[in-house]
Amino acid sequence: MTQDLSALPPGSMIGILGGGQLGRMLSLAASKLGMRTHIYCPDPNSPAFEVTPHKTVAAYDDEAALAAFADAVDVITYEFENVPAATAEFLAARKPLRPGANALAVSQDRLAEKGFLASKNIPVAPHRAVETLAELEAAIDALGLPAVLKTTRLGYDGKGQRVLRDRADAAAAFAELEPKPLVLEAFVPFDKEISVVVARNVSGEVRAFDAAENVHRHHILFTSTVPADIPPGVEKHAAMLAKVIVVALDYVGVLGVEFFVIPGDRPSLMVNEIAPRVHNSGHWTEAVCLTDQFEQHIRAVLGWPLGDPARMADVVMENLVGDEVLIVPGQLDGNTQPHLYGKTEIRPARKMGHVNRIVRRV
Ligand code: AMP
Questions:
Q1: 192 C-alpha vs ligand 1 centroid, how far in Å?
Q2: Which of 49, 77, 264, 289 is most buried, judged by most C-beta within 10 A?
Q3: What is the DSSP code (8-state) at residue 188?
């Protein structure tokens, strides 16, 4: 590991692509370190715009706006994985883009992602690429049913996927899912879903937070509970796999890795997906870690040493979706840390905030 001589000093300007709650929380963490942030987002109502005076409202393919943004910042990061490849390339030619464009390319496409993971001997669900209905039929022959048919790109919160239970489901699901191509995954008989948020900095230092056990409701993350109820060996293995991924990608920043835990005498792990950004299942770190995932990401992209991710309490993070945000402040107690995103319009299924409930100090 080499000493990084190019650490950016306090007062530097960090460019953030994307103005949602993750961009907002990154901006707040950067402010705490004496940094300034410039948010780039096409949506004029972005919640991240509330926390910094520096913003660009423009499309991701507006080259004049992108060039001015690159000129105004010292380093560029992002809060979502669907940054168009051309945008990433355009910006990376002008200022350091961290994480790099390769992390976007791999995580934007489920097939590329699974191919990359498998090439590093990291277990993923058996799967087949599907471009035609005939290929879907052949994939069902190979993988059996039930199986999960997914778009390879632009899926999130369960959008862009259908569970196929019998062959009669195949044609309709194939017709409905866009954009093509698709991927058919064998149905994984998991009993839990966990995730690990891991960080790597410019010098190659790697630190992982403890694993979180995640429960979804209507395909949206509902709770992350830490510690996860899994054997210590499984948790260590998950952290090891997450570290292999960031090293293999020569990654700089925080990355979320979602795993299925498959029951057995020795439970095994499969990676479901990776996200090249701070992750909803890492919000608990705000309440109980000396360095939370947002500060860790900012430190990494600045070329700073990473902070200690050690956990000081057992905790449950609960997302506040739609009008659940209205329970705050009524149901707060001294053990509950609220974080609301400042979104002016409440919509069903919209993530409005989260709370971290301290269960027990450790
Ligand atoms: P994804 O968008 O890939 O994260 O999938 C959303 C959710 O669907 C996951 O968190 C799982 O609960 C479920 N799921 C996705 N893929 C599979 C699979 N191959 N087998 C079983 N369940 C799955």
A1: 11
A2: 77
A3: P
Evaluate whether residue 73 is within a structural domain: yes
Q: Whose CA is nearest to atom 7 of ligand 1?
A: 158
The tens digit of pLDDT for each residue in 219-265 reads 999 999 999 999 999 999 999 999 999 999 999 999 999 999 999 98
- 38-92 pLDDT, tens digit per residue, is 999 999 999 999 999 999 999 999 999 999 999 999 999 999 999 999 999 999 9
The Å distance, Cα 175 to ligand 1 centre, comes to 20
Is the peptide bond preceding residue 329 cis, with omega within 30 degrees of 0?
A: yes
CA distance 81 to 154: 9
Q: Are residues 224 and 150 in the same domain?
A: no
Which residues are CB-contacts of 324 (< 8 A; sequence separation ≥ 6)? 352
Task: Quote the distance between the C-alpha of residue 119 and its chain's center.
Answer: 21
Are 175 and 198 contained in the same domain?
A: no
- For the Cβ of 155 lying below 6 angstroms from any atom of ligand 1, the answer is yes
Mutational pocket test of ligand 1: of 107, 114, 148, the residue with most ligand atoms within 8 Å of the beta carbon: 148
Which ligand 1 atom lies nearest to the CA of residue 185?
19
Burial class (CB in 10 A: 0-12, 13-18, 19+), 131: exposed
Among the candidates 153, 186, 219, a domain finishes at: 186
- As a whole number of Å, the CA-based R_g of the chain is 20
Looking at the domain assignment, is residue 112 inside a domain? no
Distance (angstroms) between ligand 1 centre and the Cα of 149 equals: 10
The domain containing residue 157 runs over which residues?
A: 126-186
* Residue 158: predicted pLDDT: 66
Q: Is 188 in the pocket of ligand 1 (CB under 6 A)?
A: yes
Q: Does 34 map to a domain?
A: yes
Q: Which of 221, 272, 281 to mutate to test the pocket of ligand 1 (most atoms within 8 A of CB)?
A: 272
Ligand 1 atom closest to 186 (CA) = 19
Q: Are residues 60 and 207 in the same domain?
A: no
| Number of domains forming the structure of the chain | 3
Given 78, 97, 116, which residue is the final one in a domain? Answer: 97
| Residue 106: inside a domain | no
